[in-house]
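To whoever is covering the structure queue this week,

Two jobs came back overnight. Logging them here so there's a record in the thread.

Job A:
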Amino acid sequence: MSKDVSNTQSPSHCQVALRYACELHWSIIPIEPNSKKPLIRWKVHQSFPANEALIRNWFQRFPDMSIGVVTGAVSGLTVVDFDSQEAYHEALERGWSVTPTERTRRGIHALFQNAGVGNRVRVLPGVDIRGEGGQFVVYPSPSRQWINSPFDVPLAVFPTWLMEHANQPEPCVTQNDCNISDIVTGSKGLPVGGSHYGQKVLENCK
């Protein structure tokens, strides 16, 4: 049997990561502490989950790593990322079933059964979707806490009303509308109408 990592903090984090991988069949990746940036080239894990030995090796190499979960078919889930509590409560008023939910630094992650959608930015004000090719940071990483644990609550079906927004075509801007530099970024260097997560998605595609 593999030995537990000797770092005082890592064993509990490592064991939680292994539970996610072995019991929930989630694809785990290592994330830079207090960040959302993967510590490895992770494209392969969008199709093939890491095994126990590799996850343990990551905790040996990066003892303070946060835990990332790859979204989409490989983990069987789609995540709705709310930038604020207000955006979350507005969505709740539209209705959905109880589902695993975690509190983040500013907002909420709500986890659903894989809906077969990709990453979408601002499908509604303050609402992003992380699907195929996406990832999110999960408890016990810093500033993460389960409200409804996935070990206690099964994944709900992705809400129909939200799917209608997720399936809307991306906004199309023609060359006559503005300069190419205006299309790519706004005044703060972010994609127009986008979020910091959307910017990271674009950076990962470069």
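Job B:
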Amino acid sequence: MGLISVTNIADGTVIDANDVNSPINTIVNEVNGNLSEANLDNSAVTTDKLADGAVTTAKISNGAVTTAKISNPYKFSAYKASNQSITSGKILYDTVRYDTNNNFDSTNNRYTVPVNGYYNIHASAQWLQATPANVDCSIRIYVDGSFVFKGGNIKTVAYPQPEVSTTIYLTASQYVEIYITNNVAGTIEGGTGVNTFEIYLVSET
């Protein structure tokens, strides 16, 4: 059906019920599930006209949402630019590659979670330790100062590069830090290509 229209009736014209009911019924039929996009002006339905939760997954056609419409503002990557002497303790990542929502605290070397959700966390470091006999090291993820996950131990390898990677659920305002353990004192090598600390939001649900 095209645009709804009615014929103007001149003053003094005698009308019957059909003259009134017909255009009213036309409008009712259009509204009761028959309103087509052809009858809507461009930009007639704006976001403020939609109730919260009105557009459900079932109402979105496959392929209707393209990658251009999807945005993840929570992505972060940093690395240790300078060497760090350590046996076991927190890795002091000091150089940010990118931090799209400014959630990394470079003073305390921690990433504060902006929203509830599942986050992928990856970290690595390389020891400047040529003699492998006493090496036994691993990298660990700490949340709010407590251990939650560790990567595998690397033993008796020259210049070992332990790493850790996992996805965990975090709530807004929790903070993530990266620690390293080794059974002997050593030095973490600085440089953009030899160590990293990365976090990104995978999903809020």
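Note for Job B: The first helix runs from residue 17 to 31.

Please reply-all if you pick these up so we don't duplicate work.
Q.
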